[in-house]
Write a structure and sequence with these properties.
Blueprint: H1 13-16, E1 19-30, H2 69-81, E2 85-86, E3 89-90, E4 93-95, E5 107-109, E6 116-117, E7 120-126, E8 132-146, E9 150-152, E10 161-163, E11 170-176, H3 183-200, E12 212-222, E13 232-237, H4 240-259, E14 267-272, E15 277-283, E16 293-294, E17 301-302, H5 305-313, H6 319-330, H7 334-340, H8 344-354, H9 360-377, H10 389-400, H11 406-419, H12 425-431, H13 440-453, H14 455-462, H15 469-479, H16 486-497
Parallel strand pairs: 13-14
Antiparallel strand pairs: 1-11, 1-12, 2-6, 3-17, 4-5, 4-16, 6-8, 7-8, 8-11, 9-10, 12-13, 14-15
Helix pairs in contact: 3-4, 6-7, 8-9, 8-10, 10-11, 13-15, 13-16, 15-16
GO molecular function: asparaginyl-tRNA synthase (glutamine-hydrolyzing) activity; glutaminyl-tRNA synthase (glutamine-hydrolyzing) activity
Pfam family, one: GatB_N
Catalytic activity: L-aspartyl-tRNA(Asn) + L-glutamine + ATP + H2O = L-asparaginyl-tRNA(Asn) + L-glutamate + ADP + phosphate + 2 H(+); L-glutamyl-tRNA(Gln) + L-glutamine + ATP + H2O = L-glutaminyl-tRNA(Gln) + L-glutamate + ADP + phosphate + H(+)
Length: 498
């Protein structure tokens, strides 16, 4: 027994702060092509096992692969979005590695000539002082490869079952430089990648379905040390939250080993969700001998200047570009712009409403307020939102012009429109007598009634309790069934109470 052995739970925050965590990721992202990377088999999630397969997926003798042009285009889109250098001539290699769920016995991937070189993404995360900071995370490269199938370990069977539906699905693998320094930064990095591939419409990014998953390389070193520590790979993380939990555990585990005068072993580990701990799967050699060589059945892919230019011309606006546009063109705060570009669908909906009204900040407030609350309550997305941009713009116009109060618009008309999206907001307000009352004589009578019934509060107000003005306004609004113009009510009360 090692006398100095420490457990991860023994490592205090103060001791952990003496170390620096170094993290690099290999992010695997399935592409939304209709067919597989080298075969015509259907590429769709959720089909019955072993139904989306054919002779080439099963590696039957005499079959020859043929590259999916759309998959190459999607990889180029991602490379352009990340500022990568696009290889004008790229080749595919055979990676000789035993996959029990890949019938060929090797994987077609890219080694020496990946399709995208270098590049980066910018992330926003909180530092130790709680401030939001931006950081550039570099890529080493991005390459194309085929996915393996899926091994199914069902407790009701004594054997492992194999589903080859996923075998041959096109993947891009994004290999980062070791620029990440915390679980929080890593979570922000994967979140930004998921947002990016969804904006580019090259992947659905659904981690729970395996469309986006990560291998996380983690090491620790004393702060200020010039050399990296021994890295450990945590395989197949398909949840951002669990990935962050795994990193938090692993950095404490490695510090515990070093503080206990033990060595960190280079190995592949898995994460157990229930315990929140990583555990060893296999010891990893310093170098993997995959015996790469160019696939003899696939010709080099030549990307012409014309093809590259056409892909660039079709690129959609990306999150950072839209954030800058929203701040400059619509004059909304930076925070609003970040929230409204969280998904492509929300950004498009915001612009659709802004095309119908000049009240841009009000549109932002509505989307971040009532609309977002409704979507959260119903676990829904903006693309399933019943209210069309025209009706939301009309509702905002009623509120902004004072035809109805904001409370009536948000608490009464808005819920009706959600159930009856074809009705006009003005028709709903008129039918329910919710039009805001700006008739001075009628409002003055209501103000007089409230003042007469609350003489004790009037006395307190005149003695200096000016905050009571809100109470008076509220009472007048009740008597008017919330149809009184609040500004006019405030003016009348201020004049009469003084």
């Amino acid at each position: 027994m090692i006398q100095n052995a420490l457990r991860p739970s023994d490592i205090t925050d103060e001791l952990l702060a003496a170390y620096e965590t170094v993290i690099g990721l290999e992010v695997h992202c399935q592409l939304l092509t209709e067919s597989k990377l080298f075969a015509r088999d259907c590429n769709v999630f959720g089909a019955e096992p072993n139904t989306n397969i054919g002779p080439l997926t099963l590696a039957l003798p005499g079959t020859l692969p043929k590259i999916n042009k759309k998959a190459v285009e999607y990889a180029i889109r991602l490379g352009l979005a990340c500022g990568c250098t696009i290889s004008k001539k790229t080749i595919f290699d055979r990676k000789n590695y035993f996959y029990p769920d890949l019938p060929k016995g090797y994987q077609i991937s890219q080694d020496k000539k990946p399709i995208c070189d270098k590049g980066s993404v910018t992330i926003s995360s909180k530092n130790t002082d709680g401030q939001t900071v931006e950081k550039v995370i570099r890529f080493h490269h991005i390459h194309l490869e085929e996915d393996a199938g899926k091994s199914v370990h069902d407790g009701s069977y004594t054997e492992t079952l194999l589903d080859y539906n996923r075998a041959g699905t096109p993947l891009v693998e994004m290999v980062s430089e070791p620029d990440l320094r915390s679980a929080e930064e890593t979570g922000a990095f994967v979140t930004e990648i998921r947002r990016l591939v969804r904006y580019l419409q090259i992947s659905d990014g659904n981690m729970e379905e395996g469309s986006l998953r990560c291998d996380v390389n983690v090491s620790v070193r004393k702060k200020g040390a010039p050399e990296y520590g021994t890295k450990v790979e945590i395989k197949n993380m398909n949840s951002i939250r669990n990935m962050m939990r795994a990193i938090n555990f692993e950095e404490r585990r490695q510090v515990a080993l070093l503080e206990g005068d033990q060595d960190v072993q280079q190995e592949t580990r898995m994460f157990e969700v229930e315990s929140g701990q990583t555990y060893g799967m296999r010891v990893k050699e310093t170098m993997n001998d995959y015996r790469y060589f160019p696939d003899p059945d696939l010709s080099p892919v030549v990307i012409s200047d014309e093809w590259l230019a056409s892909i660039k011309a079709a690129m959609p606006a990306l999150p950072q570009e839209l954030r800058e546009k929203f701040v400059q063109q619509y004059g909304i705060p930076v925070y609003d712009a970040i929230v409204l570009t969280d998904t492509r669908e929300i950004a498009l909906y915001f612009e659709a409403v802004c095309a119908l009204t000049n009240a841009y900040k009000s549109v932002s407030n509505w989307l971040m307020g009532p609309v977002k609350s409704y979507l959260n309550e119903h676990d829904s997305n903006i693309d399933l939102f019943q209210m069309n941009p025209t009706n939301l713009a009309a509702l905002i116009a009623l509120s902004e012009s004072g035809v109805v109060s904001h409370s009536v618009a948000s608490q009464k008309i808005f819920p009706i429109l959600l159930n009856e999206p074809d009705r006009a907001p003005l028709d709903i307000a008129t039918a329910n007598n919710w039009l805001q009352n700006s008739n001075t004589n009628e409002l003055e009578s209501l103000v007089d009634e409230v003042i007469s019934s609350m003489q004790d509060k009037v006395t307190a107000y005149k003695k200096g309790k000016k905050g009571l003005i809100g109470l008076f306004v509220g009472e007048v609004m009740k008597k008017s069934n919330n149809t009184a113009d609040p500004k006019m009510v405030n003016q009348l009360l201020a004049r009469k109470l003084s």
